[in-house]
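step: validate -> pass
step: tokenize input -> pass
step: predict -> running
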Amino acid sequence: AELVAGADAVSLGLAQWSAPDAETATRARELALRIAELPPATLAANKRCIGVAVSSGGNGYEEELAASARLLAEPETQRRVAAFLDGR
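step: predict -> pass
step: emit ->
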């Protein structure tokens, strides 16, 4: 096994971001707050999709399509998609 520095992990596509040690707790807290603002149905769907993808015999793609259809029917999802498309 090889240790990879945070910045290298980002450049290799293994991580989305990295931070200096002194900023890690702050960045993690900010990320946790962003996740906490997400609709519970979205978080539950993500968890289900991951569970299906890592279990044997499940079809993660089908679960993801079904979850997307369910979530896109919800007003909160529609509001968030519209805000994203409007650049808000």
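step: describe -> Helices lie at 6-11, 21-36, 40-54, 60-72, 75-85.
step: cleanup -> pass
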